[in-house]
Amino acid sequence: MNRIKKGDQVIVIAGADKGKKGTVSRVAGDKLFVENINMVKRHTKPNPQAGQPGGIVEREAAIDSSNVMVLNPATGKGDRVGFKVLGDGRKVRVFRSSGEALDA
Asked: Could you tell me which CATH class the domain 9-73 is placed in?
């Protein structure tokens, strides 16, 4: 079970976008794609068969999971995530500071 999942609100703690908040759109191993974070310009050739125009396209690049923290809505700050096994055997993610569960 990963500490950060698709749809989580995160805050960037290192790099050029430090301090920015966003939602995880995709997880690829230990790399994350966060909406409107780590934007790069990609020069693309036109592809008439696919109906794709050429030019400079701006898109999100991957950011390492170690450079983000899950946003705790109660405090509004980044928080570390741990795991806890409930009485019924389910494993849930919890905030380390408060012990509050992330997953419903």
From this structure: mainly beta
